[in-house]
Amino acid sequence: MSSANKFVLRVPLDASGVPDFLPDRSVSVLAWHKQGVPQQRLATFNPQGKSSASFEFQRQPESLRVALGPETATPADLQRLQTVSVAVPSSSWQTASEVSLPAIQISSYHWWWWQHWRQTFRLTGRVLNARGVPVAGASVSAFDIDAWWWWTAQEQVGRATTDADGCFAIDFTRGCGWWPWWWWVTREWQANPVLVDRITAFVRQYPRLGALGAATPAPSLDVFHSPLASSPRPMPPRFSTSLLQPGQAIANTAIDPASLESLRERLIEILPRNFPLPIWPWSAWSPWEDCGANVIFKVTESCVDETTVLLNETVSEARWDIPSSLDVTLTAREGRFRERTPGWALVDYLFPANRSSTWGGRAGNGMAVPPGRLA
Q1: Exposure string (b/e) for 310-329, b if CB count within 10 Å is 16 or more?
Q2: What is the layout of strands, in order, in the sheet containing 337-338?
């Protein structure tokens, strides 16, 4: 099909309203619809703050969405960011094969935010054994951890191997400004035993609050019904017992941030003050707008086909809102333990004598026996 027969969308951009504008960086422009492959363009500006992006389609497009964002943003990022966007209905092409949108105005806020939406961190440190001797060749993994009440979600942000002096360095970046529901569904939440114990013991000091709800595997508002009912003030309209957005599966549980903030205000009035960890509701919580990081570490050491865990930090040891450069000393625990490999391999079935190294011990130590074999 010749270019004359294609459908074309032209997207003018106007940043002339940005004070002291300088055309020193580009802006990503994305066009997409539900069934199609997103198209991304990088737009550069002239000294007057004007630019444009063009998109071509082989057939008449369905309803499109166009979003602007940082030049470093991926197509997935641009679909999930709270950023400048416009809708283009399919009817736009009913009378012409080329459509030009009105110029999209770029505010000074977005021009500034696109420059700061991603923050870079550098973690450096040293791993020592319990006697203070450097551990060489250890694997150090860093995780960003989020906590909401007694549920946590963590994401590995980097990994490094220690040198001869036990030193390591990890670099990673964090983005912010997401739509809250997108941020929420990209995390795998689970009830954290450390927080369950600490929060339960903390609240138990105040019998008037009643028993908290069960620590379900996934977040649920049911846990707050008893404390809310204990308040002498009239109960607000019943909070939803489900955090599911319409049409989503259990695996994509999402939180409505608007209802969360009103719930937080009410819980702060009811719950005992000064919980020792900075988690919701004692601390304000909108991580989708925060480029910061809360870091914990895991350190392992491998020998042949056996991996030993030297350190596995919990949420109680998290470093909250770390600076852009952080240096740490990680000391191995006295009680090391082997990291079990899930499942079983064909070699375990054919050569059962190897189970002691591959499976962490002989049958009877709590490990399963490969199917079809006797211990």
Answers
A1: bbebebeebbeebeeebebe
A2: 190-191, 151-161, 139-148, 295-303, 306-312, 337-338
For the stretch 15-38, pLDDT in tens is: 999 999 999 999 999 999 877 789
DSSP strand pairing (85-88 vs 39-43): unpaired
Residues in CB range of 221: below 8 A, 6 or more apart: 239, 240, 241, 242, 243, 263
Sequence ranges of the chain with CATH classification 2.60.40.10 = 3-116
Least confident stretch, 113-127, 152-166, 239-253, 318-332: 239-253
- Look at residues 96, 75, 64 and name the one whose alpha carbon lies nearest to residue 28: 75
372: left (phi over 0), alpha (psi -120 to 50) or beta: left
User: Residue 199 and residue 190: Cα distance in Å, rounded?
Assistant: 15
What's the confidence (pLDDT) of residue 37?
A: 87
Question: For residues 255 and 146, what is the distance between their CA atoms, to the nearest angstrom?
Answer: 14
**What one-letter code names the amino acid at 182?**
W
- Give the CA radius of gyration of the chain: 27
Summarize pLDDT for 119-143 with one digit per residue, the tens.
999 999 999 999 999 999 999 999 9
Contact 147, 154 (CB under 8 A): no
Amino acid letter, 91: S
332 and 311 Cβ atoms separated by less than 8 Å? yes
Domain spanning 3-116: which superfamily? Immunoglobulins (2.60.40.10)
